[in-house]
């Protein structure tokens, strides 16, 4: 990345360390020397069978988790107490993607966490092997195909699209051009009644100080096309509900993206006696889950209006508030639900005049922690505590409405564990089908995933707009 481009980039991203090997910075690349460049100090990394192709690693090392469709061989691997995702790709691509993910992490964006790049791999017969990019498995997350293999609400496709639209906007706000937007390149976490989307594949991406409208439109158009195709593929496998219109869902992404982008970036015009509307604008952004750190305000040329635009906008308004009060680090909609329950607890105990920090400590000890301790051990790797708590509250409300009276929390938990929680399990047959399908998408062809350069792409002419 050239110095001029770096000088105009967010300082947090600039400070991310680089692992790209060049003769000038790291000396000549030694082809036969195994090299692990890691952001983790896990010593068990050195004990893995790097001398074998990833597809031939012994099952004892592997974690049986659903994999998304990828052009490359991908495996989930136990490394001590951690689970890492390993992707076998060329050294150049691995190092570049690692660096991009590091920069995006510094910008506090929802991506998988880069752990290491492993290069210089050879078999005992001295056959050269591709590099491996190592990322941390995003606990509780699932690829979209695994979600559709379960009993989900009919509007699941729309909720996934809404999450993807939020992710795209957040990435575009910091200048990240994706270049290959699709459901396959995202992992999803449940977030109360919605989903949160995390970038998992940044091979074709690039980070700029800011994006042109043409770059954003290219991503939007590609996303719509890919999503329609992916949903049609689901439909051909009888995984998509019959009432889902694939084209309408693709159009929804465009609509949701434009609406959110406008809310975050448009300039509002106020009369000097309407300054209260500034607070209204900030509250609207807070309701969308975004914090406003700065507002750019200036007087219009006619002197009769004030122009207001958010300058620094970041996601996580509710989650940061909950983290400050309780130490719980959860998704945005989960945080909203937990904060609402905290407010209800505060009112029911007649403590509105007491410091919220003290009340939050008691709510954690008396309400939240006793509830999540009831998660059965076999499900603790299947559902987040905050999501479990949210779903208990929802189920309790339905039970109370049906019974005509309040339901004790303990009874609601028992009912939920017996009747709802089993739906979280993927049976072995479904898991095998998902991973077999993921494996069928692997293309062992270096040209298919060589370093992406928009200048070489004939379709990238739209960038000029």
Keywords:
globular, five-stranded antiparallel sheet, three-stranded antiparallel sheet, alpha+beta, 15% strand, DUF4032
Secondary-structure topology with pairs:
Blueprint: H1 3-7, H2 11-14, H3 23-26, E1 35-38, E2 74-79, E3 82-89, H4 91-106, E4 113-119, E5 131-136, H5 144-148, H6 156-173, E6 176-177, E7 186-191, E8 194-199, E9 206-207, H7 213-236, H8 246-265, E10 268-270, H9 276-287, E11 290-299, E12 306-315, H10 317-326, H11 332-348, H12 356-372, H13 385-403, H14 409-419, H15 428-440
Antiparallel strand pairs: 1-4, 2-3, 3-5, 4-5, 6-9, 7-8, 10-12, 11-12
InterPro entries: DUF4032 (IPR025111), Kinase-like_dom_sf (IPR011009)
Protein name: DUF4032 domain-containing protein
Region (Disordered): 436-465
Tell me, rounded to a whole number, the average pLDDT.
83
Strand percentage: 15-25%
Return residue spans where pLDDT drops below 50 for at least 5 consecutive residues.
22-28, 445-454, 456-465
Characterize the main sheet. 5 strands, antiparallel
Into which percent range does the helicity of residues fall? 40-55%
Distance between the termini: 23 Å
Major sheet strand order: 1-4-5-3-2
Q: What is the molecular shape?
A: globular
Entry summary:
Residues 436-465 are annotated as: Disordered. With 465 residues, the protein is of the alpha+beta class.
Describe this structure in words.
By secondary structure, the protein is an alpha+beta fold. The chain contains 15 helices and 12 strands. The strands form 4 sheets. It has a 5-stranded antiparallel beta sheet. It has a 3-stranded antiparallel beta sheet with strand order 10-12-11, with helices on one face. The chain has a two-stranded antiparallel sheet with strand order 6-9. Mean pLDDT is 83; it is low at 22-28, 445-454 and 456-465.
